[in-house]
Amino acid sequence: MKKRLLVFVVAALSFIEVMGQEAQKKDLVGYGGGRYEVFKTGGQESIDLWFKWMELHVKEDTEGILALAHDDIVIEAPEATLNGKAELKEWMSTTFTNGDLTVEHRWAVPLRFVNDDGTVNPGDWIVNDYVVNYKTNDGLTIDDSEANVYIVEGKVRYMKIFTFKKETRQTKKVTFSVDLNNSDEVFSSVSVFGSFNNWCASCDYLTDLDNDGIYTGTFDVAVGELQYKFTLDKQKVEEQFEAGAECCKTIGDYTNRVATITEDSELAAVCFNSCTSCK
User: 23, 39, 58, 136: which could join 30 in a potential S-S bond, CB 3.0 to 4.6 Å?
Assistant: First the structure.
């Protein structure tokens, strides 16, 4: 009886081990190194580091970027390949020109590679898609790109950038104005965000220098259709419009103010959350 019990226990433990391995295997996806099911989900901290890396580029913070770069960093981009921190620093010294760069993060996924023996590589691959806007002498350049980024031990070790679409649009000076005299909102800052700045609520602030309750600002906007909204305190409060509002355009779940820009323009002052003036 004891022998049969021992055999049963060993069989049960073997079954549990196999089932555990199968369950673990089901958590793996993808293809790599000639094998299927080789990636597992990476860490959110790597996504946070990637966002910080791009934020530092927006700020043109050379020292901050170098602090996040591995000593042996390699960056393969369409226009150049950089090897090591020295080349990265040199590239930044010639590229950063206070160009009002903005970044729109579309999506990003962290993945971690699992070796043949079941061990997991220490670093994360961040596969991501983003759009970069930056000013040039010719106007506003828009890069629609994807990057494969390898992050290990809190440093960016490798990056390969693929640019799917790159275009330069002529820009015009556009003055935005929003009247907050009738608003009950309590706020410390007012900004405008839209298609011209990748919907960045902390990029283009408006000011009220004469204290009349109307906040204004002038910015470079690409020629063509402009969609935008006014927002308070970095999008803590943003305008909300019903589909069909006369000053707006609705695409899917989003209804935004709309204008067509063909020349330097001064848009009429409007009430916050309204298509008309406050008067």
Answer: 39
